[in-house]
Amino acid sequence: MALDSRSLDTAQRYALVLVDLSLGFTDPALSPLAAECSAVVEANQRLLAAFRQRGWPVFFTTVAYDDPSQARVFRSKLPVLNLLEAGSPLVAIDPRLAPQGDEPVLVKFWASAFFGTDLGERIRAAGADGVMVTGLTTSGCVRATVLDALQNELRVLVPEEAVGDRDAEAHRANLRDMQIKYADVVPLERCLALLG
Question: Most buried of 33, 105, 172, 173 (most Cβ within 10 A)?
């Protein structure tokens, strides 16, 4: 039996949360965590330009570890995460999406951009009641961030061209599941129209 899933009301003000668009996830030549994602980067460039023009808040995240005790169970499950050492080039935001001076890069240790960070407080302080969540990967950190955004009572949009995954099947399945339960997964052009 199908769930009665409805579209969320449009937020009055969105924050853009760019999840883990660091070189460790965007450059396959540098990292086994990465996949070819030039189209995802391009979609995020367009969103960034629109948010900056509108003056709405922008937040980046990266995963970076400087202590063996940080997220030790997560890192035990997925040892490749140990490549993401603080100070490594892999944790730097992809230069094609370089943050501006007033756009914080929040360091996280787990999947969600909200867990163990002050992202929720920052979004509220910026006066936003909704978020557009983009980045990598759809089935992991993007999904975890979307779920936590909803649990922070935020209206969530996922611009479908602005997220990606190493696993195409997982990407599609998670977009479908998020659309049903947690967010509105919509075309990039619709998100840009809200900002125009």
Answer: 33
Q: Which of 33, 123, 141, 154 is catalytic?
A: 141
Q: Is 37 a catalytic residue?
A: no
- What pLDDT, in 10s, does the model give residues 23-59? 999 999 999 999 999 999 999 999 999 999 999 999 9
CB of 17 within 8 A of CB of 133? yes
| Alpha carbon distance 133, 51 (integer Å) | 13
pTM above 0.90, yes or no: yes
Quickly state the pLDDT bin for 3 (edges 50, 70, 90): confident
Question: DSSP letters of the chain?
Answer: ------PPPPPSSEEEEEE--BHHHH-TTT-TT----HHHHHHHHHHHHHHHHHT--EEEEEE-B-STTTTHHHHHH-GGGGG-BTTSGGGSBPGGGPPPTTS-EEEESSS-SSTTSSHHHHHHHTT-SEEEEEEE-IIIIIHHHHHHHHHTT-EEEEEGGGEE-S-HHHHHHHHHHHHHHT-EEE-HHHHHHHH-
